[in-house]
Amino acid sequence: MDGASRLMSRRQNEIIALLRETGRVGVEDLARQFEVSPQTIRRDLNEMSEGRLITRVHGGAIVASGVENLAYEARKLVAQSHKRLIGEAAARLIPDNSSLFINLGTTTEEVAHALAGRSGLLVITNNLNVATELYRSRGIEVIITGGNVRASDGGIVGATTVDLIRQFRVDTAVIGISAIDPDGTLLDFDIREVHVSRAIIENARRVILVTDSSKFARSAPARIGTLADIDILVTDHLPTPAIADLCRSHDVAVVETGGPQESDTGSID
Q1: Distance CA 84, CA 70 (A)
Q2: Contact 78, 176 (CB under 8 A)
Q3: Distance CA 47, CA 54 (A)
Q4: Residue 49 three-state SS
Q5: Going edge to edge, which strands form the sheet with 60-63?
Q6: Is residue 133 over pLDDT 70?
Q7: Residue range 136-147: average pLDDT?
Q8: Tens-place pLDDT, residues 211-224
Q9: CA 233 → CA 98, 219, 224, 255, distances in Å?
Q10: 173, β-bridge pairs
Q11: Which CATH fold topology does 2-64 show?
Q12: Over the chain, what is the mean pLDDT?
């Protein structure tokens, strides 16, 4: 029994390592990789879910929470098709001949991708990936904030970043976050990034939050604000009626893009 427990512990640690690399794991794939039955993998995932190490979703699991975000390449893979639809929907809400902030995140990068080719836009960003996406567009002027560049994802953070953002008052802010609590609290991992996001919210006439529904199943340690700070939420779908009620109570307009519900947190195998 002790040997089996040690073996299972090693397997669970390897599963968590895979999650941090890929963002999501599937029961069938894990069963093949570890040469065990799908039922054994389901037990592993359920035990880790009970320990709040992961979040179970239909067919597998995603990282639930922690003090450290997923690796950038893994974040790009999570809900990839949803993020593309969210980005396109958010871009349609932004008129030509307007100014906007775009902050860090793989979903905000999809908004930038959908904006490429538009005209008369002034984009201020602390995201090198957003700047790379947009700087070739003749109709878009891009301003990159100063600050410290994170090697992990090209994000620019720090006091210098906040100071530059406070020099502007833009029409629209497009923001992403790492997690949303059931009470509507918006959360992230890096306190420096949180300070930047707060400054962006404070200096925009309208705030659009872009996030896929998996963020409602995650948590993070640093508080950005609440849904009351948001004007429009663009997501694939709202996970619960309670979240829909919360949006209504704070006068948050919701745009649901639909798509396959890859992260069905209410259902496990």
Answers
A1: 19
A2: no
A3: 9
A4: helix
A5: 24-26, 60-63, 54-57
A6: yes
A7: 96
A8: 998 889 888 899 99
A9: 19, 18, 15, 6
A10: 101, 207
A11: Arc Repressor Mutant, subunit A (1.10.10)
A12: 87
- Phi and psi, residue 131, nearest 5°: -60, -40
Tens-place pLDDT, residues 31-58 = 999 999 999 999 999 988 887 778 787 7
102: Cβ–Cβ under 8 A, 6 or more apart, which residues?
108, 111, 112, 123, 124, 125, 127, 130, 173, 174
Q: How many CB atoms are located within 10 Å of the residue 167 CB?
A: 10
Separation CA 19–CA 38 (nearest Å) = 17
- 73-256 in CATH: which number? 3.40.50.1360
Tally of CB atoms within 10 A around 32: 12
The tokens of 83 are what?
């993020």
Cα 238 to its chain centre, rounded Å, is 15
Q: What 3-state DSSP class applies to 185?
A: strand
The span from the CA of 102 to the CA of 145, in Å, is: 11
- In terms of DSSP H, where are the helices of the chain? 2-22, 27-34, 38-50, 72-77, 80-92, 106-115, 128-134, 159-165, 191-202, 241-249
- Predicted local confidence at residue 107, as pLDDT: 94
CA distance 58 to 161: 40
Q: Counting every residue, how long is the chain?
A: 269
Task: Tell me the per-residue pLDDT of 92-113, one tens digit each, with 9 for 90 and over.
Answer: 999 999 999 999 999 999 999 9
Whether residue 250 contacts residue 230, with contact meaning beta carbons closer than 8 Å, is answered with yes
What band does 20 get if pLDDT is binned at 50, 70 and 90? Answer: confident
Provide the whole-model pTM: 0.76
Residue ranges per domain, the chain?
2-64, 73-256
